Amino acid sequence: MMLMIRVIIMDNGGFVDLSHFGAELMLAKTLFEYGARTPVVCALCGIKRKTATRIYWLAQHQAPIKGMLPWDPHWIGRSTINNLHASIFLGLIQDYASVRANGTEFGLQFCNAYALYCRIVAHNPKPCSREAGFEHHRVLDINRAWQLTRQFHASALHFATCLCCQARFLISRQEDQHAARCPVCENKTGSVASKHRISRPFSQNAGKTLAIRLDRY
Length: 217
Ligand SMILES: [Zn+2]
Hints:
This protein is mainly alpha-helical.
């Protein structure tokens, strides 16, 4: 349902009627509250930077943060935690956001997916030390979530199914989808291998290459 909210703001001594921007205004305000930067808000709400800046001023009573957006095309490969959080969020995008949605409709779906991601990670009963270092365990900033969504829609990122645990996880376009283990299972394998390497001489491990991937060491 289209929200019809009449907002009148001062503009150089005059008034600007923004009533037809009701849905965009509410969405922009919510995105700003999640920490979205102005370019992300403009893209998701279909509004101009000047309008977004005014909304930020009205909501936060200060100028929006300036500077570059976070951009690292290899972010999901930097750590297991990064991949896990990106997989949670983009899984929600894949399941609940329509590729046919456009304009504010997609902006709302994106915002709802991020809100749901925040609720999911906030209830993590055993956050690792890195997750605990983020407010409400939100390792994935909303601006990076937007960048990852663009990568996903550009097919630079894909979902693969883990051969061990059947979990859905992200891989880059260059990686093989059919011979994949999720980062958690990769880490488990690494941990097991490390324990064996510590407790046994190499000669005893040499015959266990099926269970221990020695080529990784
Ligand atoms: Zn797995």
